[in-house]
Amino acid sequence: MTIPPKAARHAWHTAVNPLHATVYFSPDTVREFAALGVENRTTANLAARAAAMGAVGAGVVAATFYNYSHEHLARHLPAVWDTISPQEAIAARYRAADATLRRLLGEEAIASAELAEAAELALRATEACTRHARPLYSAHADVPVPEEPHLRLWHATTLLREHRGDGHLTALLTAGLDPLEALVSHSATGRGMSGKWLQATRGWTEEDLDAAKRRLRERGLLDADGELTEDGVALRERVETETDRLDAAPYEHLGADGLARLAELGGGFVGRAIAGGAFPADLFGKA
Hints:
Blueprint: H1 7-21, H2 27-34, H3 41-50, H4 58-65, H5 70-74, H6 86-105, H7 107-110, H8 113-126, H9 135-141, H10 149-175, H11 179-188, H12 195-202, H13 206-218, H14 230-246, H15 248-275
Helix pairs in contact: 1-10, 1-15, 2-6, 3-6, 8-10, 8-15, 9-10, 10-14, 11-13
Protein name: SalK
Pfam families: HTH_67
Organism: Streptomyces bambusae
């Protein structure tokens, strides 16, 4: 079944990815990992996302996360596995997701038929995800599906997030955007993280970001004010269009009506999470 152009991208940006991403800024994640001896927030987030791949080091994570500084990663990995096992990290992440969603959405929403419906729609979409050349998706697809509807929904958004992300890396490589250039050009679209958060979470310095801006200006993709040029806008759109193509299967499988319903339900839950303070106010902006 054909779905409307860009409908899957819209649903991913507004109803899928933000719901998954609530855990990265959640005090519940900090608390769960600190209780196991991992007190650094960055270490906790890196371990939480990487754990499905096993006790991996900085090299594997740099390759699969794409836009993190290897030196930054090496300060946290693989040392974290001396404190916590990957299995313990996965369990802690799901406990954090449970607490985060209950806090942000409220118990009435958690117990609602609408949330259970959204979970089953999202899980149905994951039935068409593919493993080949998708290391992060494939690793997370081996994690058992939880029983509780809100965790089933969060699990499904995790799979859909990593499936699209794995394909996105292929699109970035094809476009010739290195990790820093990908971050800076994304921030210039208005959808990416601000420079403050790129430095805090990805481990890059202001000098690194400035060098990437110079490279993008030399390629005619960024202007002197840090805005995308026409060529820059066109390149970012090609990246997203190719990502859409590589990520089409789950949403084609869900169908136009199912996708529209997932976007409606998921978007409502995301709106409630944002209103509840799920993300920092200064998260987005120019690099």
